[in-house]
Specification:
The complex is a heterodimer of chains A (148) and B (72). Chain A has 4 helices and 8 strands; from the N terminus they run H-H-H-E-E-E-E-E-H-E-E-E. By secondary structure, chain A is of the alpha+beta class. In chain A, helix 2 packs across helix 3. The longest helix of chain A has 15 residues. Chain A is globular and about 50 Å long. Chain B has 72 residues and is mainly α. Chain B contains 3 helices and 2 strands. Chain B has one domain. Chain B is elongated. Classes of the chains: A alpha+beta (148), B mainly alpha (72). At the A-B interface, helix 1, helix 4, strand 7 and strand 8 of A face strand 1, helix 1, strand 2 and helix 2 of B.
């Protein structure tokens, strides 16, 4: 069986996550590229695109495809027809940039849990009065990306 | 990178959880950072930035100083 072209794989992963709200499974990737789950898993693990697509070391399934998260997070990004989960308060805007549409982020204050709604548009900065706390300095961002 | 209603809430949360304060960034500045940082990965010519390119993006939105230094 042939390997999977890394560019085609990256584009498929993001096309799918943007259309479906969740990243494709290893099985779906294997089916799309006419290969085995083992080869699909290996292709995902070998995607040399920085820290952008990370896989769960146990299952081999996509864990995050920055700025999108594979599972529910405190940052729900609601678009015109779809919704996605962002990894953090930085990535909630990243989702708006990539899907290139006006979105509504439904989140909560990390301290008190009060619901917050942030309107985000790729061409207009948000006006809501809120602050983002970067807990970890940049030199340690990639030590533990989940914690960061 | 977590969202808070205000700086007071950050102070309360860091105290309660035993964390030092990192950096507080207004929402609009984080939006500018995301706009500069995220290119569409569906483009065929998309590529990962190297360290210095990423550092330049961070600095381009006014985030400079030791806290914002990526590892070398």
């Amino acid at each position: 069986m042939e390997g999977i072209d890394s560019v085609a794989l990256r584009i498929f992963v993001y096309d799918d996550i943007i259309a479906a709200g969740r990243p494709p499974s290893v099985a779906a990737i294997a089916m799309r590229f006419g290969t085995s789950p083992a080869i699909a898993r290996e292709a995902l693990a070998n995607l040399k695109i920085g820290k952008t697509i990370l896989v769960d070391p146990r299952s081999g399934e996509i864990w995050m495809a920055g700025p999108f998260a594979a599972a529910e997070t405190p940052y729900r990004v609601v678009g015109e027809k779809r919704e996605w989960w962002a990894n953090c308060a930085w990535d909630m805007f990243g989702v708006a940039m990539i899907v290139n549409e006006r979105v509504r982020v439904e989140t909560r204050c990390t301290d008190c849990g009060a619901p917050m709604t942030i309107l985000s548009d790729p061409s207009t900065a948000p006006t809501e009065d809120a602050v983002v706390h970067f807990l970890v300095p940049a030199r340690r961002w990639y030590d533990d990306i989940g914690f960061t | 990178m977590s969202i808070f209603r205000s700086e007071d809430h950050v102070l309360r949360w860091t105290r309660a959880n035993g964390h030092e304060i990192g950096a507080l960034v207004p929402l609009a500045q984080v939006w500018r950072l995301a706009k500069a940082w995220y290119a569409d990965p569906r483009r065929r010519d998309w590529r990962a930035r190297n360290r210095d390119e990423s550092q330049a993006v961070i600095a381009s939105v006014g985030l400079t100083g030791a806290f914002w230094e990526l590892p070398r």
